[in-house]
Structure formats: structure tokens, C-alpha cells
């Protein structure tokens, strides 16, 4: 570093440029290298490079600042403190598209870290110039401009609103069907970062007629494009039932379910959560997810995935689908997903979040469930805090269904209930008593533990007349 710094002040322009490129490559390698540059006070000469007329010097300097700022908020703050952001924003107005691309990339890396750094980029006047970059013919410049806007918008509603006020949504919406996959990735990322903050911002994205046109990209060959479209849909549907209904009417639920069946791992996460947000709003929307075979797809996710956070999201979404009415809960139960939720809840290796979401989903579904074959497996291995909900469901159905009472006896359900150890006066004991009251006393005694021994004892003591 100490040897390269003087070369940046050399009288030969080519030497200055080559020294800057060498520093950029070093800074790109590790945060250790980048920190060494800051300590060697190399940033001020780089910022000076950005004010020169030589476009190659400007690109080289922007490359170094980009490499330094990508590693941490602290290093990005050092770039800001050296006057780097103001100098970079001035370069966004350059004629040469390569200079604008290099400077936008540096600003992108600065803005990604936190609200304060994004605010410094905005305060320097970058947003209007970045929006103008979206209409340039160079694809690479469009990509990095969209990516920078995405990083600015993701932090707060206020920052997103600034981008919207500069016309970002309209320009982004015009590129959703662009043939370039990398550009579409950034476009949908930026739109989702804008949409996530508030209902009003989400509605502005919808009003730009992004849908139903964006539905075509859910079949794009590029998986990241499909993931980012799904993420945009997730951010839209979470706000209101009306926005969720709009996506359902466009065929969004069926397309997302199809996408979930064709990918694995983290790309599934936005789609899983999108289904949960849709279902959470109303019974009708939850039924739309069921009709599109969303429950069976989420059950498949629970079985196929190994990452706990993905399974936790699937468990949460299943709970949102099944908690509305007995019809919804029964649809979940017939997909045979409840035993898997119980397994994940009881598995000691499951993360705390996965256990919590599995338990909440089970409880909310069991409280509505009337499909008794889906309940009976829980009689054998469910813990008491789940078992009380299972017995409560039985106690609601059995009094009004003679066929269910007969099946409950012949399947061994009544016998299992009599074998349970419940504390007197507990909620579990109350549910057991309610179930027992649905059957004649002699049948309850017959299936009670020790009844056969009592009969044999009576036989031994019996004296024929």
C-alpha cells in the first residue's frame, strides 16, 4: 500500500490509472486489504481522480471505491467521509456510459448497508440521475441503476418514496418484459423493495400495470427472475385483501404453486410466504389456495426441505390456510400434513422458530378440525398441550354424530382416551369427561384400564345358585 500510494500521484497518467486498478483488485479481495487502504489514506487521491477529465481515471477510481465500500458499513462510511459520494454522484452526469456504470456500482455498494448510508447517497442527489440511467440504451447501465435503486429503497418508506417521486416505478415497469434476464432480476427486486413498505406504495406499483404482464415472467428460464417476481407478489399481497385478490385473479396463486414444485431451497421461500399471506386475509382467499392444491405443495416442502427457516415458513403458511373454518382445517388434515407438523414440533433438533410455528399451526387447525380420522393418530403420541386441543375437537363432533361415535370405539380411540393420565380438574380431564359422556357408562367401563381384571375377580368370587 505504501508503495502504490505514491504511484497514484505520478506524472504519467497511465501509471496513475494502473496503480488505481491494482488497488481496486486488492480491495476487492478482502476487507483486510480495504481497511489497509483507508489507514494509508488512499481515499482522498481517489476522490480527486473522480474530478479529473480523464474518463479512464474516473472508472478506475470508482472501481476502487466500489471494492472498498462493499465489505462493511464502516468502510462505506470512510468513503462518505472522504467526499466520495458527492464526487461519484457528479460522475453520474458524465457522457460516457462506462463511467456512469462504474460510479453507480460504487453507490450501490454504499447504499446496501444501512439507512444512514443510503440517505447520504440520496442527499447527494443520486436518485434522479439513477432514474435517468434506466432509460439509457446500455443494458449494463440499466442493470446497475435498478440495483442501486433497489438498495436505496429497501431501508425505509421515506427513501422508497423519494425514488417513486422521481418516476422510478414507471421506468421500471416498462422493463419487466425485457429479454435480458439480469436486468429483469434487478427490476423486480427494486419493485418489491418499493412495494414492501406501505399500502400506498404497493398500490402505485399495481397502478403502473405491472400485473398481469409480470405473470409471464413466472415461466422465465432464469430461476432468480422467477424468485424475484414471486417476492414482488409476496410484498403486494401482504398488505390488503384487495391486493391479494388482484394477484389471485391474475392466476398468481396457481403459478406460484407450480413454481414451488419446480425448484428447491431458498428460491421457494418468497412463494411459500406469499401463499400464507394470501390465505391469512379471508376464508375465500384461503380456499383459493386450497383449490389450487397449495396445501399438498406445502406438505411436500415440509418433507423435502432441510433448512429450518424454510420449513418454518411452510408451517406458518399451512396454519394460515387451515385456521379459518372446519372446511379449511379438514382440507389440511386430508393432505396428511398434521403428523409432519407434530413431528417437527417434537423433534429436539428443530429450531426454536420451527417448533413454535409448527405448534401454532397445529393448535389453530385442531381448534377447527372435524375430520376425525385426521385426529386419531394424535391420541397415541401427542404431548398434553396438543392433546387437549385434539380431545376438544372430539368432544365437539362426537355428541352429534352416531357413526363417528361407533368408529371411535371400533378404531380403539375410546380405549386410548381411558388410558390417558390427566390431573383431576385439568382442562385435559374436562375434555376426557366430555368424551366419556357421549357413550353409555358400561362401554366406558369396558374400555377402562383394569376392567378385565375386575371382571375376572367377579368371576372368581361368583357363587352359582
From TrEMBL:
Molecular function via GO: microtubule binding
A single Gene Ontology CC term: axoneme
SUPFAM superfamilies recorded: ARM repeat (SSF48371)
Pfam family, one: Arm
GO process annotations (BP): epithelial cilium movement involved in extracellular fluid movement; filopodium assembly; neuron projection extension; sperm axoneme assembly
UniProt protein name: Sperm associated antigen 6
Amino acid at each position: 500500500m505504501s508503495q502504490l500510494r505514491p504511484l497514484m500521484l505520478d506524472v504519467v497518467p497511465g501509471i496513475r490509472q494502473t496503480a488505481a486498478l491494482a488497488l481496486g483488485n486488492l480491495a476487492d479481495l478482502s476487507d483486510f486489504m480495504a481497511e489497509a487502504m483507508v489507514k494509508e489514506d488512499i481515499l482522498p487521491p481517489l476522490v480527486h481522480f473522480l474530478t479529473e477529465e480523464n474518463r479512464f481515471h474516473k472508472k478506475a477510481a470508482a472501481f476502487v471505491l466500489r471494492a472498498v465500500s462493499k465489505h462493511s458499513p464502516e468502510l462505506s462510511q470512510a468513503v462518505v467521509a472522504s467526499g466520495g459520494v458527492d464526487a461519484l454522484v457528479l460522475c453520474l452526469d458524465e457522457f460516457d456510459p462506462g463511467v456512469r456504470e462504474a460510479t453507480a456500482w460504487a453507490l450501490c455498494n454504499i447504499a446496501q448497508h444501512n439507512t444512514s448510508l443510503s440517505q447520504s447517497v440520496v442527499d447527494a442527489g443520486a436518485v434522479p440521475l439513477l432514474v435517468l440511467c434506466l432509460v439509457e440504451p446500455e443494458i449494463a447501465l440499466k442493470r446497475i441503476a435498478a440495483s442501486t435503486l433497489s438498495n436505496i429503497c429497501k431501508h425505509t418508506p421515506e427513501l422508497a418514496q423519494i425514488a417513486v417521486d422521481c418516476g422510478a416505478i414507471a421506468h421500471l415497469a416498462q422493463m419487466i418484459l425485457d429479454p435480458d434476464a439480469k436486468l429483469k432480476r434487478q427490476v423486480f427486486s427494486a419493485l418489491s423493495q418499493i412495494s414492501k413498505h406501505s399500502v400506498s406504495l404497493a398500490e402505485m406499483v399495481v397502478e403502473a400495470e405491472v400485473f398481469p404482464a409480470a405473470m409471464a415472467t413466472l415461466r422465465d428460464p432464469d430461476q432468480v427472475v422467477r424468485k424475484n417476481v414471486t417476492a414482488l407478489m409476496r410484498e403486494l399481497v401482504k398488505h390488503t385483501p384487495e391486493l391479494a385478490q388482484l394477484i389471485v385473479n391474475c392466476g398468481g396463486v396457481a403459478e406460484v404453486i407450480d413454481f414451488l414444485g419446480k425448484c428447491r431451497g431458498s428460491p421457494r421461500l418468497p412463494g411459500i410466504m406469499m401463499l400464507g399471506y394470501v390465505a391469512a386475509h379471508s376464508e375465500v382467499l384461503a380456499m383459493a389456495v386450497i383449490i389450487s392444491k397449495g396445501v399438498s405443495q406445502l406438505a411436500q416442502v415440509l418433507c423435502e426441505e432441510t433448512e429450518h427457516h424454510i420449513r418454518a415458513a411452510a408451517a406458518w403458511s399451512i396454519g394460515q390456510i387451515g385456521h379459518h373454518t372446519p372446511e379449511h382445517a379438514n382440507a389440511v388434515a386430508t393432505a396428511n400434513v398434521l403428523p409432519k407438523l407434530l413431528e417437527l414440533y417434537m423433534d429436539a433438533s428443530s429450531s426454536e422458530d420451527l417448533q413454535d410455528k409448527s405448534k401454532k399451526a397445529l393448535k389453530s387447525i385442531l381448534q377447527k378440525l372435524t375430520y376425525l380420522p385426521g385426529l386419531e393418530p394424535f391420541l397415541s403420541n401427542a404431548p398434553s398441550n396438543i392433546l387437549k386441543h385434539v380431545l376438544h375437537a372430539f368432544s365437539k363432533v362426537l355428541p352429534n354424530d352416531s357413526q363417528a361415535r361407533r368408529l371411535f370405539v371400533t378404531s380403539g380411540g375410546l380405549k386410548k382416551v381411558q388410558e390417558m393420565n390427566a390431573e383431576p380438574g385439568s382442562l385435559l380431564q374436562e375434555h376426557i369427561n366430555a368424551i366419556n359422556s357421549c357413550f353409555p357408562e358400561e362401554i366406558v367401563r369396558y374400555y377402562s384400564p383394569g376392567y378385565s381384571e375386575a371382571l375376572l375377580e367377579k368371576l372368581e368370587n361368583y357363587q352359582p345358585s
